[in-house]
Amino acid sequence: MMPGTMDFGLFFLMQRDDAWSERAVYDSALEQMLAAESLGYHSVWIAEHHFSDYGLCPAPPVLASFVAARTATLRLGMGVSLLPLHHPVDLAEQLATLDIVTGGRLDVGIGRGGTLQDYQTFRSERADARLRIEEGIALMQQCWTGTPFDFKGQFHSAERLHVRPRPLQRPHPPLFIACNSEDSVLSAARIGLPTLSSFFVPLDDLQRRRQRYRETAREAGRSDTEIDALERQAWGMRVVHVAADHDEALRATEPAFMGYQRKMAVLRSDATGGSVPNSFDRSLLRLRSFHDYLDDGWALIGTPDEVRDGLQRYLDASGLQRVMLLMALPGLDTALALRSMRLFADEVAPAMTPVAHGA
């Protein structure tokens, strides 16, 4: 692991640049994932997406199994599993199996995500997505107890169900909730799970939502000590690219980053059905100039000193101690991504200082 008390993971959207083949996306991502362990990264997180070049991995557990077989300590994260598109028992079985074959290295992010086409194809109602998340998590947790149980919910039920195998981690793999909206933050606080926040969530929103999380968790009966522990497990995210020269870093990443933003804007547009109800503010995804994104801190791109300073400001403002790094931008040359990973591990991560948690 990297020195220090912070955890840095790598986030893989598996997005395809128009000039790349689907195979090239997988080849590049896998080369980066398999380099992560020796560089000291805590984890790799793989996004689930369907029917779009925006993300080419509809089955993260399959890809995670491949990576797990070729690593020893690297944790494998579902970033995230779109629970409303799955039957919770089926997903619980898959993830329990994955936890065993990884030797207990699985982390499970849960989210609503998904386009209108996703929900229509998998015959799930987007209006029910939040309820399906909360009920589905409760059902999955029951599945992972290793004992028979009965379950009666709004969407699913079971009688004397005994799910096997049981996950290796106890009581189950760590669970997280994707929280790009305040609605999701409050839900995570009620059920007592840590949050995952994307890079486009404004810092002032992160700060306000942290207070709302703490208030809601207290109302649900949790102590400040328990809430502090949950906050220490939470993950933030930043787009990051490190190079020895500032201008070189910008030249390398501007086409890739702007390509990402264009695909995001289309994916969440009204033409594709927008977002799930009570989701994040879609005005955040309006296309702007590359330097506007840099000025807002969405992307930390530059020399090790510049990235270190920008990331420390983010940590100081957010209170986060764990950060996913989106380095695998669509179309970015693999050698440049690997160089960025090495520079971050050697020259940025060791200097980062987390903020102490407390009410």
Describe, in plain words, how this protein is organized in 3D.
The chain is globular and about 60 Å long. It has helices spanning 22-39, 60-68, 88-101, 116-121, 129-143, 182-191, 203-219, 224-233, 246-267, 290-295, 304-318, 334-348, and strands spanning 7-12, 43-46, 75-82, 106-111, 149-152, 157-161, 175-178, 195-196, 236-242, 299-302, 322-326. The longest helix has 22 residues, at 246-267. It has 359 residues and is α/β, with parallel strands linked by helices. Strands 8-7-4-3-2-1-11-9-10 form a nine-stranded parallel beta sheet, sandwiched between helices.
In short:
The protein is an alpha/beta fold.
Name some characteristics of this structure.
single chain; 359 residues; alpha/beta; 9-stranded parallel sheet
Query: Tell me, what's the shape?
Result: globular
Number of helical elements: 12
**What's the number of extended β-strand segments?**
11
* Termini Cα gap: 29 Å
% residues in beta strands: 15-25%
What is the residue-averaged pLDDT? 93
**Biggest β-sheet, characterized?**
9 strands, parallel
Q: In angstroms, what is the radius of gyration?
A: 19 Å
Label the structural class. alpha/beta
Question: Which strands sit side by side, in order, in the main sheet?
Answer: 8-7-4-3-2-1-11-9-10
Low-confidence stretches: none
Q: Helix and strand succession? A: EHEHEHEHHEEEHEHHEHHEHEH
Helix content: 40-55%
Write the topology of this structure.
Elements: E1 7-12, H1 22-39, E2 43-46, H2 60-68, E3 75-82, H3 88-101, E4 106-111, H4 116-121, H5 129-143, E5 149-152, E6 157-161, E7 175-178, H6 182-191, E8 195-196, H7 203-219, H8 224-233, E9 236-242, H9 246-267, H10 290-295, E10 299-302, H11 304-318, E11 322-326, H12 334-348
Parallel strand pairs: 1-2, 1-11, 2-3, 3-4, 4-7, 7-8, 9-10, 9-11
Antiparallel strand pairs: 5-6
Helix pairs in contact: 1-12, 2-3, 3-5, 6-7, 11-12
